[in-house]
Amino acid sequence: MRTLFLAIALCAAASAQTNSAGVMSEWDVSTLLTNLEKGANQLGSALDQMKPDQWSRAGAPQGYLTQWNIARNEVQYLLGSAKALNHDPERLSMALDALFRMDALDRTLSSLVDATRKYQSRPLADQLQARIGDTTIARDKLRQYVYELAKQKEHEYQVMDSEAQRCRASLAGAARSGTAQRRKTPPSSKQ
């Protein structure tokens, strides 16, 4: 029991040390995700102004309509990922999901910006490009957070693993010394 308490204390100390060294505080993560959600909503508004169904009349490939639908879905997926991460900012899988959603959205949007400029409106394309630029800072901060969180989780795992190995060795040593003690003690005679 004492060993378990020691292992928990070591993990907490390592976590606190790592947190002060680089991982964003929960407050900063919440602010980052709030800004990310705001930017995603603005991207969604800009996407809603696009009319890719009308672009085909001007000679645009039908694939742009598919990309537009994918981008609109990606905005919703990103919003969901950001909200989930905001509820549990220590979950590395959620942080990665939000980052991957942002990257997927950016790839889709870059093609749509060019198509919007060519087939609909230069000012709308510029507005969309500006919205993408606004999310760049949030994406870079999220990428840094994911990296720092992964390092922290890796460090915590290493501490727990080394403590578990030490505990196993300690228990195995106690079991061997107990067996040796029983061999040295003569059996009691029954009367």
Description:
The protein has 191 residues and is an all-alpha fold. It has a domain at 24-150: Up-down Bundle (Four Helix Bundle (Hemerythrin (Met), subunit A)), CATH 1.20.120.230. The protein has six helices and no strands. Helix 1 (2-21) runs antiparallel to helix 6 (122-184) and helix 4 (63-87) packs antiparallel against helix 5 (92-119).
Q: Output the CATH topology of the domain at 24-150.
A: Four Helix Bundle (Hemerythrin (Met), subunit A)
Q: What do we call the CATH homologous superfamily of the domain at 24-150?
A: Alpha-catenin/vinculin-like
What structural class do helix, strand and pairing data support? mainly alpha
Helical proportion? over 70%
Stretches with pLDDT under 50, minimum 5 residues: 3-7, 14-20
Work out the oligomeric state of the chains in this entry. single chain
Shape: rod-shaped
Structure at a glance:
Helix content is 86%, strand content 0%. It is mainly α and 191 residues long. The chain has a domain at 24-150: Four Helix Bundle (Hemerythrin (Met), subunit A).
Features of this protein?
191 residues; 6 helices; 0% strand; disordered N terminus
Secondary structure layout:
Elements (H helix, E strand, L loop, with lengths): L1 H20 L4 H24 L2 H4 L7 H25 L4 H28 L2 H63 L7
